[in-house]
Amino acid sequence: MRDLTERKAVERMKNEFVSTVSHELRTPLTSIRGSLGLLENGIVGELPPQALGMVRIARTNTERLIRLINDILDLEKMESGMLELKLQPQTAQDLVEATLAGVQGVAEAAHVRLRSDVEGAPQVKGDRDRLIQVLTNLVSNAIKFSPQGASVVVAAGLTADGRVRFSVTDQGSGIPEEKLSRLFGRFQQLDASDTRNKGGTGLGLAISQAIVEQHGGRIDVSSPPSQGATFHFTLEALRVPAPGAGVTLPPDDSRHHVLIVTADADLSALLRGLLSHEGYRVVRAATLTEAAQAVEHAPPDALVVDTRMPDGPVLDWVRRLREQPRTHDLPVLALAGRSQAGGKDAGTALLVDWLPTPVEETRLLKTLRYAMRQPGQARVLVVDDDATTRRVLCAQFERLGALCIEAADGESAVALARDTPPDLIVLDVGLPRLDGFEVVDILRQGKGRATPLIVFTGRELSRTDQRQLTLGITRHLTKARASEEELLASVRELLNGLLARRDAAAEPRKAMP
Fold first, then answer.
1. CATH for 379-512?
2. CATH tag for 5-79 (out of 2.170.30.10, 1.10.287.130, 2.70.180.20, 3.60.15.10)
3. For residue 404, what pLDDT is reported?
4. Where are the domains of the chain?
């Protein structure tokens, strides 16, 4: 018998100390990173090459420290049992697509191809963000250790014992057998010079293992000599008893839901990739029967329908949808080999738009965004803590025919964006309660992720800042440099097709102090 009270108290104090120190370090490090980024981007003039190199080294290492602190906080939460998982039904297809969309830029920079291979429509019950964190970590590592021109394959499917297996396979140099056993330890990295130079905190795999284990799964790795590596984990499969339910998804109010109806697998893959990248939740039905089941189970926010379906006339099915109160106003975009003659046929009234194939991506995305918005004037959410600036901006935008909604802080901006989704957000960065970075990060998690954005701020933004301050189509303008004409031109561009005439009756502005 041993009394562990004192030891547990010491461990608790250690965990609290690490957590407190980590939180206190993040704020000054973020400020240091921002300052170094400004210097690197020439805020005080062009630096000599040697000085610029030193600033770049300092910024890179500051970012590494911030990642390390974030990883330590994640591990401490998991080990102390404070990490709360939001368990919801998830489809393997959605998890893989969301992961690949998030790391596509990294792969392109490394000249590595990404490929998904999801068999069937397996579902699991898990925390979407945490599972995507695991897959993102594994894919990022695979990209990091892959030669240029190689491929990384992210696969998912059911195993023989009824579980769902996720795997990430690269074409790198592989992992020596004697080092496989310690890959998932804290601060563990391979020691070879070609891998040490890749960077990283050495905590990503430990965090991934903890997340998978909290989901009741197991993560492992296999690496045949000189044949790359495959990291894989399995989770309990979620049973879907209803026939035909493979084309439906569990409720998820955080994203717009688009149902693609086409028998063309290549067209489906193109549309799924495009819409998933824009933040839409995509479901495919290969037949009209499957489409009817999917709509009955959970009506989507919009339908994209291929008119060349082999199992029946599409317009007759759309007409039946229009006759039902539940789907009477459902936006329907029809894909055809060519635009219908003048748009005058009887089916035109049933549709939002005819879209010729091959699909013009810009037109499709624009049409979808307009089809799912609330009717009425173009709505611009102006977010700035200075009341005078808000009044001036709103006066300018109202002259264009827009309806302005004002917010003086980050929390109000998020609340208003969720309550009345705007067609455009004009956002300052330095805000009380939640700053601009936090506002954008929160809106990215929901339906606001595709909202056009103008970042209108007095501070100089680094390239990293600009990447973080991005929603839908985004413009970054500096108050001291951007002219009134430049700002209004950006507003007109991003509200294309939505601006009312200047003489339209102006509605009173909504305001939140």
1. 3.40.50.2300
2. 1.10.287.130
3. 93
4. 5-79, 88-236, 248-371, 379-512
Type of residue at 29: L
| CATH number attached to the domain at 248-371 | 3.40.50.2300
pTM, entire model = 0.45
Mean pLDDT by 10 residues, the chain (513 residues): 67 62 63 74 80 84 74 64 73 86 81 86 86 89 87 90 90 72 55 45 73 86 80 84 46 69 82 75 85 84 86 86 85 70 46 71 76 79 90 88 91 88 91 88 79 87 84 84 83 77 41 45
Burial class (CB in 10 A: 0-12, 13-18, 19+), 457: buried
CB-based contact 363:380 (threshold 8 Å): no
Longest dimension (CA), the chain: 87
- Token readout for 93 is 């297809």
How many whole angstroms separate alpha carbon 283 and alpha carbon 252? 12
The Cα 275–Cα 258 span in angstroms is: 8
C-alpha R_g of the chain: 25
One-character DSSP codes across 464-501:
HHHHHS-SSSEEEEETTT--HHHHHHHHHHHTTTTPPP
